[in-house]
Amino acid sequence: LLSRCYMEIWKEIPGYQTLYQVSSEGRIRSLDHLVPCKGNKTRMVRGVLKQSFPLNRRGYQITTLSKDNRLMTYTVHQLVALAFIPGFTKGTHLNHIDGVKTNNCVANLEMTNPSHNGLHAYKLVLAPKVGKSKYHQVSYINNPASISKWAVCIRHNGDSSFGWKTFKTEEEAALYADALLDSIGDTYRLRNFPTP
């Protein structure tokens, strides 16, 4: 885990100036402000530090901000980036450098693109590289309901899915792929575990 920021710095959230601030640690607070009431009057609402953040379906912390009687939901890491990362615009991809989606410290965030973001997740073993395996003839099954995540099939005699079978581990699938090629007498395709 990356260590937290050395000194917490607070900045106003762009688009919500005078209403909310976000810190370099990924914390959010509302500010003291006046709100309109009936009879052309106003009342002071005291600012509070948001104590917890729910997670969205992708595991990122989210928060709801209010302005002009309108509620908007944002991911916390995007708000941190808006306030602290120069050149960041809403919608730009961000990496959590340590792979922990709830560590929203600005030192743990970096701007990226979808390709680099996926590669970063794969390198940290946060997500398999979809459809790719380090072995020949082995594919990843991108289905959350599937228990067996690795599949093997080869092209043989016009059949593009000859020997189709699924496995729980990538290594089991690779061994089966080698055995399948050996069973049809294939001498051209590379083996995952060549024998001397």
Secondary structure elements and their pairing?
Layout: E1 10-12, E2 20-23, E3 28-30, E4 33-37, E5 41-45, E6 62-67, E7 70-75, H1 76-84, E8 93-96, E9 109-112, H2 114-123, E10 138-140, E11 150-156, E12 159-167, H3 170-183
Antiparallel strand pairs: 1-2, 2-3, 4-5, 6-7, 8-9, 10-11, 11-12
User: What percentage of residues falls in helices of 4 or more residues?
Assistant: 10-25%
Q: What is the terminal-to-terminal distance?
A: 43 Å
Kindly provide the radius of gyration, computed on alpha-carbon positions and rounded to a whole number of angstroms.
Answer: 25 Å
The count of helical stretches stands at 3
Strand content: 25-35%
Mean pLDDT: 86
Largest sheet: 3 strands, antiparallel
For this structure, the quaternary state is single chain
* Number of β-strand runs: 12
Q: Which consecutive residue ranges, at least 5 long each, have pLDDT under 50?
A: none
Biggest sheet strand order reads 1-2-3
Morphology call: elongated
Q: Helix and strand succession? A: EEEEEEEHEEHEEEH
Structural class: alpha+beta
What does this structure look like?
The protein is α+β, with helices and mostly antiparallel strands. It is built from three helices and twelve strands, in the order E-E-E-E-E-E-E-H-E-E-H-E-E-E-H. A hairpin with a 3-residue loop joins strand 4 (33-37) and strand 5. The relative contact order is 0.10.
